Write a sequence for this structure.
């Protein structure tokens, strides 16, 4: 559907001396304004996200992260509220595709 966009992503992080870390996310955007998503960090955490595109430059969102490790017994998750400003508006660009 033109009103719903799906954005899956995966990220693997390799650091010497640390275990492999894999993140998998799935975000859905509705009407170019509302975003709902989930993320899973392999053997570490589960997250949820909601967001709203206020206008062409401003975006506000909320995220909740829940530990799935042994640390889960010591906290009840973390909350995150964020505000994003996009410096370069995607609508200001003139698209002129070249097919050669």
């Amino acid at each position: 559907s033109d009103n719903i966009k799906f954005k899956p992503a995966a990220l693997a992080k390799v650091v010497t001396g640390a275990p492999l870390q894999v993140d998998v996310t799935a975000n859905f955007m509705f009407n170019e304004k509302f975003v709902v998503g989930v993320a899973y960090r392999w053997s570490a955490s589960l997250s949820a996200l909601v967001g709203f595109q206020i206008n062409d430059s401003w975006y506000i969102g909320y995220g909740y992260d829940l530990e799935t490790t042994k640390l889960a017994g010591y906290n009840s998750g973390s909350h995150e509220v964020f505000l994003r400003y996009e410096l370069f508006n995607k609508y200001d660009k003139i698209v002129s595709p070249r097919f050669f």
About this structure: The mean pLDDT is 90. The chain has one domain: 4-92. Residues 4-92 form one domain. The chain has no helices and six strands.
